[in-house]
Amino acid sequence: MVPLRAAWPGALRSAAVPATRAVLRRRPLVPQLRRLGIPLTRLPGEGVAVPLLRTFCTGAKAPSKEELLKDASHHDVPVRRKAVKGLGKLRDDADAIAAVAHALGDEDVAVQLAAQAAMAKIADVGDERTVSATLEKLSSACEWTRIAGLSTLADITGKAGHPTRGTPLDLKVNEAIRSRLQDEDWGVRRAAMDAMAKRALFGCGETIEAAKVLLQDQMGTVRESAIKAIAALVSKGSREAIDWIAPRLDDWHESVRRAAVLGIARIAVRGDQYALELEKSSCDDRSWIVRKAATDALAQTATLNDLPCLRKLARMLEDFDPLPRMAAIYGLAELGGVGHRKVIKLAEARLDHRDPGTRQACVQLLEKVATSDMEDISRKVEEKMDDEDEHVRDSAFYALEAIRKSPPGRRRWISDLPDLGDLDRLGLDSDEEESGET
Length: 438
Prior knowledge:
The chain has helices at residues 10-25, 30-35, 50-57, 65-71, 77-87, 94-103, 109-121, 128-135, 143-156, 168-179, 186-199, 205-214, 220-233, 239-245, 254-267, 273-282, 288-301, 307-315, 322-336, 341-348, 356-369, 375-383, 390-405, 432-435. With 438 residues, it is mostly helical.
């Protein structure tokens, strides 16, 4: 249903509610809207198209350029943010570009993020006007403005091989980003490393060397960015790169240890025993964040019939935190696939574990890999419908239903989880709360 603006007068809201309900019920709207006193002109036939109703419900016309420029300096943060996002739609407008660049130095980070997204839309990639305006922000006395400028440059400049790369302006961008790797503020150093890595050519020696230096930075988040840069730029299977990152598995900062184990998994080829041993050791980390990442990494690097790795993943079903257990469920299912006898045996052996979380995890794993011809497994899962724990009972009910529908045979299991690999940018540029979209 089309959402209503909370700021509408009561009469207007009461008029729109029956109209939106009629759309859902597929009733002709003209008689209802006329009874409510809403003026209608030239409506097609006897019904109102949803786009027309949506235009009515979402209200006023789009603000003018002058209004947006004025609101961009409003004292209220939501007004400034909305105005900056609107300015991003004014393609190639010099005044809009200047206003968005100014917003990169806003005192509120929500406005800065809106400005970063708007600057990427307002002109083509590598446009001299947007790049020059953003480049100026790197010399700001405010560290937040420098961070916003670096992050925006990473978005609005072309990647390696783009036609705008190598120009005099692009060389200035390179130099400015490189100089910020030694900034006094750790947030700026991290943003500079991220921007440099994003713009770098695969295998770029200069960027890799800069990242190696920052592996020794005093701030954990900077070391984390350096690990990610190395993992993204080195060749697959590089033992040397794994050796650079491996010491960070003992870092005091849990996000660094997490980045290190994921970086090793990204670099290593499947079946790399050195990488597998590092990942297995991280599965025993004191932090559940690292254990969850290590479980994901182990499933990514292990081979189908590597029994030590399968047993280690099965041990993670006994973890006292639910997220490592979930990672083990999906890791074993994706690695072994449907009908893999060893994976099924490992899960079956833990169905009577003392911890209800482990029992539930084993039931959920069998739901994914067991097939309808495995009568013994079906019987044991059915017994779990009488478990003392309600979560185990619920999982057993759905698992039994899924097992009975699963045809016999070996095949690959495809994950039903959404791809959340880019969480850092998820929802960054959503207009949902302002456009009235559902």
